[in-house]
Amino acid sequence: IGNIKIGKKHSECKKSKIGEICWAAPAKAVYIIGHQKNTIAYLGSFLRTEVERRKTGTVKTTINMGNLVIATLKRETQSISLEELAEIIRGSKYMVALTGSGTSAESNIPSFRGSNNSIWSKYDPKIYGTIWGFWKYPEKIWEVIRDISSDYEIQLNPGHIALSTLENLGYLKSVITQNIDGLHEESGNTKVIPLHGNVFEALCCTCSKAVKLNKIMLQKTSHFMHQLPPECPCGGIFKPNIVLFGEVISNDLLKEAEKEIAKCDLLLVIGTSSTVSTATNLCYFASKKKKKIVEINISKTYITNKMPDYHVCAKFSELIKVADLLKGPKGSEGEKQESDGGATDKTRQ
């Protein structure tokens, strides 16, 4: 299928850059392919859907297996404490964070899957979460956004404050996130790469007009959400600027994420189960580039003992302890590092 044949080694398949990888649903299974034990393919996580006729909802799906074959290297992931993590960060010069839905769990945002209260246990993802579902029932995804915005008190958690503090201290340079909630931006992180989009943006499907939204506009009582789907003055309908199942992540965003990882000497992988190919591919890219990887999660994940050098068993909110350790006494370790943009920051020792 695609660029690889069953029985062939990974080295014999045509490799593609991260920016060419398609993303859709999370993998349900991992299959061993060929003679190399560590050669794997995510089946079910690389559907590319091309909408041929938007008005009728006619779609065409193609599968490219070669783009999502990853040869993972066995690596012993060492468990470390928050205090040890602080020392690793202290020695870094360019740190990047890759975050997943686990960072939003403590902000009162329901998870998409994995529990009886998850979003997809209440809303059928085939109808509410796919691009073909959107073209047939464009109001459905807006219903999910409206209900979550109205029924849940969403707010920043200490982990968001920690990442903002780490940026202010000069350690954290950028955040690559799979989340669509905009909380990293709200907390004060200035360079955020939202791979899956941002729920606080909407695009007209007819004239491509972009609209910035806020929490009030997404409430049930707002004028914007009074009629679903929201309509553009041109007569078209708005689509939330998020990646639905069946859509492809922006190639520009993937290249930007890849560029940031290439520049870093430390990658924090926080709150992601790594079952979605996006996170796994970026971690693999960092591993190939010999970057130091620290996984921060309440449990071990698919990539543990494959790519990360270290694992910290902790909630996202516990990172505030690390930020406090790095602040240090006034006038010493905690002072800001001079930023790349030339801002007047104090030098980190």
TrEMBL record:
Q: Which Gene3D superfamilies match?
A: SIR2/SIRT2 'Small Domain, TPP-binding domain
Known InterPro entries for this protein?
Answer: DHS-like_NAD/FAD-binding_dom, NAD-dep_sirtuin_deacylases, Sirtuin, Sirtuin_cat_small_dom_sf, Ssirtuin_cat_dom
CDD domains, per this entry?
SIR2-fam
Residue ranges of the region described as Disordered: 328-349
**Pfam families (UniProt xref):** SIR2
GO CC term (a single one): nucleus
Coiled-coil ranges (or none):
none
The name of this protein is Transcriptional regulatory protein sir2a (SIR2A)
Q: Where does this protein come from, organism-wise?
A: Plasmodium ovale curtisi
**Lineage of origin:** Eukaryota, Sar, Alveolata, Apicomplexa, Aconoidasida
